[in-house]
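Q: I'm building a small set of examples for a reading group on sequence design. Run inverse folding on the following structure and report the sequence directly after it, with nothing in between.
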């Protein structure tokens, strides 16, 4: 909870030290399928079929949209990672501009 409060005050997040390994530096595009007010959500992508990719607000790039403005259905670009215990996670998430006019 402290990390979210720090984020809302505009402070930079501290990187988590976990067992996550970047599987590749290939950025892929996906769609936000769930955003929870507690600071996490899921992304789906046709490049990773049948998988809901977990993300945490600390993985959202700071030069993009704030987590509080992130909505279901938004398109994002991210790097998938593999976590031995938790499965696929998204890092370095960048919100893509909307093509709706």
């Amino acid at each position: 909870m402290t990390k979210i409060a720090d984020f809302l005050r505009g402070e930079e997040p501290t990187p988590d030290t976990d067992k996550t390994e970047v599987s590749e530096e290939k950025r892929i595009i996906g769609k936000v399928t769930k955003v929870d007010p507690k600071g996490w959500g899921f992304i789906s992508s046709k490049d990773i079929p049948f998988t809901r990719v977990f993300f945490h607000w600390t993985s959202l790039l700071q030069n993009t949209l704030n987590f509080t403005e992130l909505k279901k259905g938004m398109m994002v670009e991210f790097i998938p990672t593999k976590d031995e215990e938790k499965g696929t996670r998204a890092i370095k998430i960048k919100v893509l501009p909307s093509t709706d006019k």
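The chain has one helix and six strands.
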